[in-house]
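B., you asked whether I could sanity-check this one before it goes into the benchmark set. Here's the sequence:
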Amino acid sequence: MSTDAAAETRRSLAGAGGVEVRWIMPEGFLELPFEADDLDELAERIVELARRALPGADEGVHRQWAAMCAANYDDFIEAGVQYAGFVTTEVDGVRCTATVNVSIMDLDDRAGSNPTGFIASTLRHLELGQIEEVALPCGPAVLCVGNRSADVDGSLTQSGRPEPIWTSFIQVHVPLVNGTVLVLEMGTPTVEGWDVFSAMFAGVTKSVRLFDDHGAPLVMPG
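And here's what the prediction gave me:
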């Protein structure tokens, strides 16, 4: 997976039980590497990404930033994340950042014949945020909008101590016919960028297209 930023780059995930997922990422996103021959190569690719993301910082900051990213990879694997990208831009003079993750997870066996309804009911029970069932070009989906907090490592804060940071997020869950769920998530800790990033993410989710093993288009049943 390339770490280059490109204008409206097409992305895809293959091998998800016979369903290929394709979508379009907008200009400006840098992508975390997920393919490498060994851990040393992966580490160096993350450091190189840090140099691109923080061009004015010294090598020590690059290494700290890379270590923070690397620490998330176990969580990525557990959550089925297969794409992770981020963008930094100015919105009304404020420096804002957002991340986009794309995951494929197993669908709960209890989902039955109405997986969209089951996912929506489960998310409501977990009280993750505002839940809505929506229709995308690729099929029915569940939209979740909410907020969550996480601690930032002290090496990256002015106080030198871990500090909580709130992230606003949008998740889109698309149940697939092969017993998996495609999950796309956008998150941002910068309130000023919410409108811009949520509009951008709406375009990403609407660009999702599904294909079978032979390259024929698929639309999930409603």
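One thing to flag: Helices lie at 39-53, 59-71, 73-78, 115-126, 194-206. Otherwise nothing jumped out at me.
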